[in-house]
Amino acid sequence: MKFGKRLKQQVQETLPDWRDKFLSYKELKKLVRLISSAPPFLNGSSEYGKSEAEFVRLLDCEIDKFNAFFMEQEEDFIIRHEELKQRIQKVIDAWGPSASQPSEAEYKEEMGKIRKDIVNFHGEMVLLENYSNINYTGLAKILKKYDKRTGGLLRLAFIQKVLEQPFFITDLVSKLVKQCENMIDAVFPVEAEEKGKEGRETITVAGEGIFRNAIAALMTMKEIRRGSSTYSHFSLPPLNLPDSDLIPSFQLNSPISIVP
């Protein structure tokens, strides 16, 4: 699949409020075509310098957009993660087995709500990791296209700058994703014999919403990170996630069905 179509698909499959935060790939591609087709376009000329400067300015604006959005989401995720931990403790203190007024019905109902929120939260963070991946890949591809069509040498220096940008550094989000998975394992344990049954049920109910989009995002991240004949130092490293482990963290650790 060509990158433009892949990006369009990702935009459609993400959250509605996120759709205008992705790389303006189509517009940048049109600009590259316009610059490269303007005669005469000779490397080193003043015309070339002005066009290249404008192209870089537009790319910088895109990076500013990515950074602002990514850091806003990251801050929100930190707050929500702490709130989820506090909610779990409150339910345990209020209706858990050791509470002053234990209630199995209330406990299960409230924990079911929290678990759904955790899975959706986990899915949003996966979507943000994919947001970083897909936009970095788009920048690398549009810079490659620019250099190829104009004879410029922008890609190497620009990508080096991109690698230091907040939107590209996903260590904190990845840590929160893992903590969410550990939270589900610890608070909502599933017996081994229940896993197969619950996995099949979850596949059935996961046809809509954040859960489905997170699965699609994981598949996209694996696809754009896989090694191939076109793999280079501009490419993201392969996603170290075996096929058998790609989905279970979403589907099998689920004693309570998630209904969108």
From TrEMBL:
Span of the signal peptide: none
Superkingdom as given in the UniProt entry: Eukaryota
Pfam families: SPX
Domain SPX span(s) in chain numbering: 1-160
Gene Ontology annotations of biological process type: cellular response to phosphate starvation
Protein name according to UniProt: SPX domain-containing protein
